[in-house]
């Protein structure tokens, strides 16, 4: 059951990021239909994140209280309605309203999914399992890009959006009727007890302001700037600066997505391997993530110097793959700080990180617009800004983040018991 849950969470993330990224893939068509400037397009990209931080925390807190199945099911139904509602968009104001509402209801998905993984998997598999969920983002944002581009070209961008709404409804049906909330049979009793335990605001604020939580959040934030750039600006960058055709752009985006997924899954699995051997969070989690982010920042900065199309694709594969390692492991560090409120802790990380979504698109749009005819200089400045942020906060992350010893939850104990019983059943008795 846990692997099926993980598979559905993976596909849920695919849909989530396809919803985010299709706006970038359809950028040329949408800007042409509505006669939008670069500044206006930056506003469209930013609008998705205007309420994202608030609703991400609120939705994850509701999931801690009422359960992931109910909240995720509700979210998927709203995605369905909103994506079909795109068919009625006729002007820029409606496009912005749609993007704001989509951000409102998509914000809670990632922290809830991260915390749900922690219910089903033991600590020694958390890095790998969470990286599979994160990989869904890479697939949704980049790997399926050629398919989304083909749908946009064949049927128009509005129909392509509506088809993603249909995918959300299929996911809702499978998740609601074929999964369980938790591997622990006493889930209701556990939740009832948890509701009686209130968090003291002062203690909670001290925890959130601790060096471990604070610099994990800032490292996550720096990576979010890169995520937003990849989502909103990468397709246009590959067409206008690297001079790829629309089809080449689609395959380039897909290549970056596939290779980067393999990289951060591999690094996350390596982190799990180290943790299994030494149980040392600093060595297996913090140093691995910080080193990977630093390498990723250097590869990202290199595209401003070497702009050969082949090197740009290779460098962006490596930049995304190494930098994104914070995405599966960062939430694990935050959840470990307060396991009984795992959804809330993960949502603080993702919601604060997604403040980059408010600033990033507008900042990049303004830089490119100010550069005038020299678009390459504008894009290069935006890339160097992001690379600098990632490099600085990876160093601070390595210095100040010191996670406490992991607690073993009831869910994890149950998973271990299931593994032990499974080994007994599969063992051959000696006669």
List the helices and strands and how they pair.
Elements lengths: L1 H24 L1 H8 L3 H10 L4 H15 L1 H18 L6 H15 L2 H12 L2 H21 L1 H11 L1 H22 L8 H10 L4 H8 L2 H22 L1 H7 L5 H33 L2 H22 L6 H15 L2 H12 L4 H12 L1 H16 L4 H26 L9 H17 L5
InterPro entries: MFS, MFS_dom, MFS_Na/Anion_cotransporter, MFS_trans_sf
Protein name: MFS transporter
Subcellular location: Cell membrane
Report on the structure:
The chain has 431 residues and is mainly alpha-helical. It has one domain: Growth Hormone, Chain: A, CATH 1.20.1250. It has helices at residues 2-25, 27-34, 38-47, 52-66, 68-85, 92-106, 109-120, 123-143, 145-155, 157-178, 187-196, 201-208, 211-232, 234-240, 246-278, 281-302, 309-323, 326-337, 342-353, 355-370, 375-400, 410-426. Helix 1 runs antiparallel to helix 7, helix 13 packs across helix 20 (355-370) and helix 20 (355-370) packs antiparallel against helix 21 (375-400).
Question: Could you provide a short overview of the structure?
Answer:
This protein is mostly helical and about 425 residues long. It has helices at about 1-25, 25-35, 40-45, 50-65, 70-85, 90-105, 110-120, 125-145, 145-155, 155-180, 185-195, 200-210, 210-230, 235-240, 245-280, 280-300, 310-325, 325-335, 340-355, 355-370, 375-400, 410-425.
